[in-house]
Design brief:
alpha/beta, Ribosomal Protein S5, domain 2, Rossmann fold, 21 helices, five-stranded parallel β-sheet, four-stranded mixed β-sheet, 521 residues
Length: 521
């Protein structure tokens, strides 16, 4: 009669930001020595066999020379990464009788060959998933403790070595070796803010460009996407870098969601607490599709578009990006999320960002105005302009030309960020009140059908103007929806109850990039 022992514990599997509790079961039975992991593990997880064996032996505990099978349930759920190492070790130790059974702890962490517990990415969303499913008692690596404790309701235990976990559960193990004197590994650096400023970027630093500043304020107030075109040195990058400062703070739920994304990316520093300010991502134009929308082997990781969730994604020199990279942003612009399909798994990441595009008038940058100094041929200019596809630009609400400033404009001082941000907060408060009971919070999120169903809230002369624009072929039906959203934002900034003709005129000019003549509207 064969003898067998069973041991179990729990871990968390992350697919995107979606976390699920995974049961980790181990069985030790008679037979030739063997260690198998079943339950749809990926390559990284399969390598846990060697890490767990070495870690248990380094802790002074006996490794049973018998058949060991570890099962991860539910079996059909994809499982990836070294985050399962600690749970597998605890289940094996319980199965072979080296550790008492019982307990409701969830175990997360990577094991070193010496038994040390190493930090892993994605601890915050993993802990949040465990707490949401009624499992608040969680053991994590000591280096991840500060991050895990940011989740409300979590009862976190931080451990630096497997021996500490064994003693936590009533077992006996050799003393953990003293950790080496070394600095904790720093998180991966996020994309540097544009503008090259070490301190906070204030809108008062921008000289002149009052029309572009007004467009930036409207974009911030309504959550609209923005396209700025103009020669080099006119302040496009400075304006984009100051947009996050105009946006309101994130709510508690939003802060946890955004912080979870950055935890998955490895760009989060837990010493600074939850990310309560809107993020700013400015990838270089040589960035690949995987770095922008996410990717990687196994379960895909979030890219810049997801790290900019509820913040700003700034693409400077946007025509220099690969066209297929730019067009890959059409899905998140429309739906506010990215779905990354792989044969192994499908991951969903939120990506409701404000897109800011900046471009020169031509490759040499001297094609603005009369373009006398421009060295680009007509064909080169057309090719440059066509790199931004029509479907992508059609999803951008505001288009503004940023020209060179004159001495008169430079003499006019502009408002600072605090003053403009106060107006943005008031406008957003009006939007929240109007959109109460809906899943949207800003005008930029409202879908066209919902707007068209409530055309009774718009003045009749505004509707007649929009119908005329549609009949003349100057606006598509989607364009009308975009103009209506902009008009509502302009009205909210003005404190009006509903859009007037002058608000609609401003929206038409912003939508068309100045092609509409205000005098004819």
């Amino acid at each position: 009669m064969s003898r067998q022992g069973l041991g179990s514990t729990m871990a968390v599997s992350l697919v995107g930001l979606q976390g699920d509790i995974v049961g980790v079961e181990a069985q030790v039975s008679d037979g030739l020595p063997q260690f198998r992991i079943v339950g749809l593990p990926d390559t990284t997880l399969a390598e846990a066999r060697d890490r767990v064996r070495a870690a248990i032996q380094s802790t002074g505990l006996t490794w049973a020379l018998r058949r060991i099978t570890v099962g991860l349930t539910p079996a059909e759920l994809p499982k990836s990464g070294s985050i399962f190492d600690l749970a597998i070790a605890v289940a094996v130790l319980r199965a072979q009788g080296s550790l008492p059974g019982g307990g409701e702890h969830v175990h997360l962490g990577e094991l070193g060959l010496d038994g040390a517990l190493h930090p892993v990415r994605g601890i915050l969303p993993a802990v949040a998933a465990a707490v949401a499913r009624g499992r608040p008692r969680i053991v994590v690596p000591a280096a991840n403790r500060a991050e895990a404790e940011l989740v409300p309701g979590a009862r976190v235990v931080g451990a630096g070595h497997l021996a500490e976990v064994v003693r936590l559960h009533g077992g006996r193990a050799d003393d953990a070796p003293a950790p080496p004197v070394a600095a904790a590994p720093a998180p991966l650096a996020p994309a540097a803010p544009a503008g090259g400023l070490a301190g906070p970027a204030d809108l008062a630093d921008v000289v002149g460009q009052h029309e572009a500043r007004a467009a930036l304020e409207i974009a911030a107030a309504g959550g609209h996407h923005l396209f700025m075109s103009g020669p080099p040195g006119t302040g496009k990058t400075m304006l984009a870098a100051r947009l996050p400062g105009l946006l309101p703070d994130l709510s508690e739920a939003q802060a946890i969601e955004v912080t979870g994304i950055h935890s998955m990316s490895g760009t989060f520093d837990p010493a600074r607490g939850l990310l309560r300010r809107p993020p700013f991502e400015a990838p270089h134009h040589s960035a690949t599709m995987a770095s922008i929308v996410g990717g990687g082997s196994g379960i895909p990781r979030p890219g810049s578009a997801s790290r900019a969730h509820l913040g700003v994604l700034f693409l400077d020199e946007s025509p220099e990006f690969a066209p297929h990279v730019l067009d890959s942003l059409r899905q998140p612009l429309e739906h506010g999320e990215l779905v990354l399909q792989r044969s192994y798994a499908s991951a969903r990441y939120p990506a409701r960002f404000q897109l800011v595009l900046a471009a020169n008038p031509c490759p040499c940058g001297k094609g603005s105005g009369k373009g006398i100094d421009c060295t680009c041929s007509a064909q080169v200019r057309r090719r440059y302009e066509n790199r931004l596809s029509g479907p992508l630009l059609d999803r951008v609400d505001i288009r503004v030309t940023v020209g060179r400033i004159t001495r008169v404009e430079a003499a006019r001082a502009g408002e600072d960020t605090a003053t403009v941000a106060a107006r943005v907060r008031r406008a957003r408060h009006r939007q929240r009140e109007r959109l109460a009971g809906t899943p949207w919070g800003t005008n930029g999120e409202v879908p066209g059908p919902w707007l068209r169903e409530r055309t009774g809230q718009v003045a009749p002369d505004c509707l007649r103007l929009l119908e005329r624009q549609l009949d003349q072929g100057r606006l598509s039906l989607r364009g009308i929806d975009r103009v209506l959203r902009l008009a509502w934002t302009v009205a909210d900034l003005a404190g009006a109850e509903r859009p007037r003709v002058d608000h609609l005129g401003t929206a038409l000019v912003l939508r068309s990039g100045g092609e509409h003549d205000p005098a004819r509207i």
